[in-house]
Amino acid sequence: MFKGLLLTRSEDGQTQAAITEIDEAQLPPGDVVVQISHSTLNYKDGLAITGKAPVVRSFPMVPGIDFAGVVQSSTDARYREGDAVLLNGWGVGETHWGGLAQRARVKADWLVSIPGGFTAAQAMSLGTAGYTAMLCVMALQREGIEPSAGPVLVTGANGGVGTIAISLLAQLGFEVHASTGRLEEAAYLQSLGAKEVIDRHTLGSAGKPLQKERWAGAVDTVGSHTLANVCASLKYGGVVAACGLAQGMDFPASVAPFILRGVTLSGVDSVMAPMSRRVQAWERLAREISPDLLARNTETIGLGDAVATAQRLLTGQVRGRVVVDVN
Ligand code: NDP
Predict the structure, then answer these.
(1) Which GO molecular function annotations are given, in alphabetical order (predicted)?
(2) pLDDT recorded at residue 24
């Protein structure tokens, strides 16, 4: 038996969450059983736990889209007992029982070895947010955006993806501008490497199809009007790596920035990203992340705090990352 957060749905469609004793025999099929030490709370976990969006596709469900721990048993030759592994995405925590528990059984194909130098807790200080931030940086670089092209913008700056994207881009030599609703956190964002901090409300409502050219690139975690205004404000040939929907799933934009300024909208998905790109992202994180970021950007909670913290996360009251020590 082990402890996990179990989501069920009541007859009136409400999601209910409770810490439950789970029998290992109840775990879904898979080749590898992982003894989880740490999971995290990402925005999507907040949506799943509170039931605010239909992230969970079948009930009962153990939420948690990422986890780290050691292999307890494996029928796949690639993994042996004691190996340190992590997992991001693949529908785990949505369609397959996830990381907010002390055990998970998953496909070996979904696992990544924790890169040397990271503990499980450090790997989860990055978690899906950090891995996605790196995928966004890689997308900008693939499209040829270099520091000499001009400033880059990060939206949702105080969130998990935002804080890590700021730090990574600043380390690479970019002039980073950060858009936030929490201007009181400006000093923190500057300590991560942001040169300018702007009020997110300046980007949050309908704007002109083409605006003053401000940024060579952007990492957008917000979507909706913000993404439309970011596209309209990119310099000629600019690129935005779009990964999120914290403001909304809509995209009320015009084609003007694409056809008149050659702007590129580069979509970033972490869930089904191919293994080669995942491994590259994690290896780059191990090399490039500033070691002191992991501790100061992370709040660690227990499983018992996950529900209350999920609510705080969705109302924008969490700064940086939340790691869940499931033991
Ligand atoms: P967090 O909750 O940690 O951060 C989201 C941030 O967005 C908040 O801190 C806040 O920043 C800002 N924000 C919140 N509400 C609004 C709003 N109404 N309007 C504008 N900004 C808002 O989430 P994550 O960093 O974990 O994820 C960010 C986004 O990226 C989410 O939408 C998530 O679903 C998505 N995502 C997508 C992935 C993919 O594979 N495509 C993978 C990982 C995340 P501030 O207070 O600074 O304004």
Answers:
(1) acryloyl-CoA reductase (NADPH) activity
(2) 94
Rounded to the nearest angstrom, the distance between the alpha carbon of 293 and the centre of ligand 1 is 19
**pLDDT of 291 higher than 90:** no
Number of the ligand 1 atom closest to the C-alpha atom of 162: 25
**How close is the Cα of 291 to the center of ligand 1, in Å?**
23
Q: Name which residue sits closest to atom 36 of ligand 1, judged by CA.
A: 244
> What are the structure tokens assigned to 170, written together?
């600043």
Residue indicated by tokens 């997110």: 200
| Ligand 1 centroid distance, CA of 250 (Å) | 14
Identify the pLDDT of residue 116.
Answer: 86
Parent domain of 181? 127-267
Domain count, the chain: 2
Residue 217 lies in a domain: yes
CA angle 123, 177, 293 (to 5 degrees): 25
- Mark whether 260 and 301 lie in a shared domain: no
* pLDDT computed for residue 166 by the predictor: 98
Dihedral sign of CA atoms 225, 257, 151, 202 in order: negative
Give domain status of residue 279, yes or no: no
Q: How far apart are CA 233 and CA 86, in angstroms?
A: 38
pTM above threshold 0.95: yes
> Would you say 299 and 323 are in contact if contact means Cβ atoms under 8 Å apart?
yes
Task: Mark whether 7 and 62 lie in a shared domain.
Answer: yes
Please identify, by atom number, the ligand 1 atom nearest to the C-alpha of residue 160. 25
Q: What percent of the chain has pLDDT over 90?
A: 97
Residue 219 and residue 99 share a domain: no
**Residues linked to residue 298 through DSSP beta bridges, in sequence order:** 321
Q: Is 282 part of any domain?
A: no
Give 129 Cα–ligand 1 centroid separation in angstroms.
Answer: 9
Asked if the ipTM is above 0.95, the reply is yes
Domain match, 156 and 25 both: no
Decide if 120 is inside a domain: no
Q: Quick one: pLDDT at residue 17?
A: 96
